Amino acid sequence: MRTTVGIIGAGPAGLLLARLLHNAGIDSVVLESRDRAYVERRQRAGILEQGTADVLRAAGAGQRMDREGLRHDGIELRFDRRRHRVDFPALTGGRSVMVYAQTEVCKDLIALQLAEGGPLLFEAEALAVEDAATDAPRVRFRHQGREDVLECEYVVGCDGFWGVARKAIPAELTQVFERTYPFGWLGILADVPPSHNELVYARHDRGFALLSMRSPSVSRLYLQVPDGTDAGAWSDEEIWDELERRFETADDWRLERGPITQKSVTPMRSYVHEPMRHGRLFLAGDAAHIVPPTGAKGLNLAVGDVVTFARALTHRKATGSPELLDAYSETCLRRIWQAERFSYDMTTLLHRAPGTTGFEDRLQLARLDRIASSRAAETDLAEGYTGFPFG
Ligand SMILES: Cc1cc2nc3c(=O)[nH]c(=O)nc-3n(C[C@H](O)[C@H](O)[C@H](O)COP(=O)(O)OP(=O)(O)OC[C@H]3O[C@@H](n4cnc5c(N)ncnc54)[C@H](O)[C@@H]3O)c2cc1C
Q1: Residue 33: CB within 6 Å of ligand 1?
Q2: Is 391 part of any domain?
Q3: Measured between alpha carbons, how far is residue 216 from residues 6, 174, 258 in Å?
Q4: Centroid of ligand 1 to alpha carbon of 305 (angstroms)
Q5: CATH number for the domain including 173?
Q6: Fewest C-beta atoms under 10 Å: which of 11, 97, 227, 373?
Q7: Catalytic, out of 12, 22, 72, 328
Q8: Are residues 112 and 218 in the same domain?
Q9: What InterPro entries does the entry give (predicted)?
Q10: Is the pLDDT of residue 391 over 90?
């Protein structure tokens, strides 16, 4: 099998890249180790920055998002039983975000790829990337019980944090920057209309909580829990009771309860792999970097990477110049580090780490109070949340 761009992974990064290349007249093959149903059901991100929504529209993948997605013009910060709304358009010159689940983004892109794009092979597991530093990189993969080879001009590893692409970059050329956090998020999906019309980020002495939504009838809520927590150890009632405590306000706001349909625990990690390119192998999305979900940046970073790659390869095909491909890693990393900083700031602003002192508690409250009382501090948060520009 032969193609111009071999794409490993059909998450948001790989699927969008295939679409962008198709629109630019460049052929690709996507290899995905899981089956279609699994990829379409995997619950993860749900906030699209304005730039991400614009890219999906321009790629011809935004129709259902514009019909069913929920435009959000702000978030609420909750601390000390107080509520403070951050108004994005007023602070950023009109920017907003879109609530539209990653599962739906993937479904839309898969349908388009199967109808109009190049091959998208499910249950095709990449085993290794070979000859990455040459002009003819290859992906060895297993599909329908047989081993095969995909010969490429370029390979893009969009295979997430646990993928194989990153391993093809020699360790001596690599630097890894990493932080793990001593807590995770217990996330639930519940069949109940969201109790607030925008996301609520709550800082509480018992830990962080987030109220978000997937649709007007489905809520997505999270609780900070100790690292290594088993989701099954929490009964539904315990979860609702704890959410209620952490979202408490001085007014008569109420949290509506409903049947919980899914429970899982997500660990929190910051991770950056540098460089994101080795010869003709490029890394994109979670394959190269992870952010804790507090800043809602993971999916949006993946989109930024593949937009940068598609633009660079199109430039190369049109002009013969490798200049943008050569700058790929540096261009992406500038935006990635801004998102790493923002996600770290949001995480340390709102979570309570084990062993936190009274002094640190007071500092956290002072940071929140500063955001609630200074337009400059609030603007910084709004700009970060609605998204840093693509390189
Ligand atoms: C549990 C969880 C919850 C999250 N929640 C949020 C959130 O609330 N907000 C937020 O902004 N972000 C969240 N994220 C992060 C966000 O979902 C990711 O940043 C985003 O999925 C990145 O997209 P990606 O395409 O780079 O990687 P992925 O979505 O991980 O896609 C990688 C794909 O590659 C496939 N693959 C892996 N190995 C191989 C192989 N060897 N061969 C072929 N295919 C392979 C995988 O099956 C997968 O389909 C969450 C992540 C996780 C894991």
Answers
A1: yes
A2: no
A3: 38, 45, 13
A4: 14
A5: 3.50.50.60
A6: 373
A7: 72
A8: no
A9: FAD-bd (IPR002938), FAD/NAD-bd_sf (IPR036188), RIFMO-like (IPR050641)
A10: no
pTM: 0.96
CB 297, CB 287: distance < 8 Å: no
Residue nearest atom 11 of ligand 1, based on CA coordinates: 296
Q: And the tokens for 328?
A: 């790929």
Distance 297 CA to ligand 1 centre (A): 12
* Residue 25 near residue 3, CB atoms below 8 Å: no
pLDDT per residue as tens digits for the range 287-334: 999 999 999 999 999 999 999 999 999 999 999 999 999 999 999 999
The answer to whether residues 150 and 38 belong to one domain is: yes
- Does 118 share its domain with 187? no
Is residue 388 within 8 Å of residue 297, measured between CB atoms? Answer: no
State the closest ligand 1 atom to the C-alpha of 302, by its place in the atom list counted from 1: 26
Atom of ligand 1 nearest to the CA of 124: 43
Range of the domain at 325: 5-71+100-177+269-346
| CA 7/CA 164 separation, integer angstroms | 12
Same domain, 320 and 365: no
Q: For residue 45, tell me if it sits in a domain.
A: yes
Number of structural domains the chain divides into = 2
93: DSSP letter: T
If phi > 0 it is left, if psi is from -120 to 50 it is alpha, else beta; for residue 93 that is left
Residue 334 inside a domain? The answer is yes
Q: Are residues 47 and 119 in the same domain?
A: yes
What's the pLDDT tens digit per position in 118-173?
999 999 999 999 999 999 999 999 999 999 999 999 999 999 999 999 999 999 99
